[in-house]
Known about the structure:
alpha/beta; Rossmann fold; 3 domains; 17 helices; 15 strands; 40% helix; disordered N terminus
Amino acid sequence: xxxxxxxxxxxxxxxxxxxxxxxxxxxxxxxxxxxxxxxxxxxxxxxxxxxxxxxxxxxxxxxxxxxxxxxxxxxxxxxxxxxxxxxxxxxxxxxxxxxxxxxxxxxxxxxxxxxxxxxxxxxxxxxxxxxxxxxxxxxxxxxxxxxxxxxxxxxxxxxxxxxxxxxxxxxxxxxxxxxxxxxxxxxxxxxxxxxxxxxxxxxxxxxxxxxxxxxxxxxxxxxxxxxxxxxxxxxxxxxxxxxxxxxxxxxxxxxxxxxxxxxxxxxxxxxxxxxxxxxxxxxxxxxxxxxxxxxxxxxxxxxxxxxxxxxxxxxxxxxxxxxxxxxxxxxxxxxxxxxxxxxxxxxxxxxxxxxxxxxxxxxxxxxxxxxxxxxxxxxxxxxxxxxxxxxxxxxxxxxxxxxxxxxxxxxx
Length: 412
Ligand code: SF4
């Protein structure tokens, strides 16, 4: 019987809406709770902002943000994830992926306030990596990541216990993608595993198999939360997709037979990115029929079929570098978040760039960060008030750092 969080005492949308004490990681994390046999509801934590923000137009907000930044000076650093909208990115002191931005904040230790324009797990990662005197802020607490929320610590622990009953757990290395809660990063740190990014997943898996190959006849990786990154990386390393099985946390023993678990090389958590799973093989075929000379580049959070039909696959940083390396006149279809695709198209007028998905596919949670919430955060800082601070508890932080340090030692 799997334990579950009790949401009964929460008041949705109020300041008292904090998950119960003792939950590892940052308590200000939205949480999907089962409300009925039919589905889940996401607990929302962000209160509506007051009228002075809601009624301000974009120009007024821009003026107020600019004024606040002038007053706050070098005490604040604003981080803008690649998938963020342009009206927010224009204020960012640095743009990049979640790990790169967290490192940037840690290197800028004079900045007491780190405003992370991304999603919750990114702000947690920044809090893990920055100094004790730096405070990390997420402008809108409802900016979670649906993929990160698909792997809950208690479900992962239950899975780990099941694996311990069925197979030699010493031969299993847990790996979590950067896009996961601090609690999961700590879990893998405690259990001999590591974190990976979409840039270094291959090195992380190779390291993991190397660790356990002499311990177990059938060494395994338990990879979460994104089954697609795990599967794509396993295939790149030569593992057969037939030896990778999806662990569904809603089912007993993940919905797998004992034999399947024993024989598996990679157990993939049943998680996905709602943005990247939209890309499909018919979209690639359609693009190729319209632009036979065009190239298709996709992110490894896309399905294996999409990756196999694309010309190139890689992280957001890879995609940016790949675009920059193309000669004038090149036609490209890109399978990643639409704000990054549009920015690449605007910044590279000598190329013809379009989204692989003809229907716009923004990351809806990332999109919650807007100038209104950024303005609110900065004006509060001006008044010496820190709102929406993301804090990871010390024990979780310590073990998450172990997992991140293993990643750096393995992949640098
Ligand atoms: S793009 Fe996907 S993985 Fe990235 S934050 Fe949005 S939902 Fe999460």
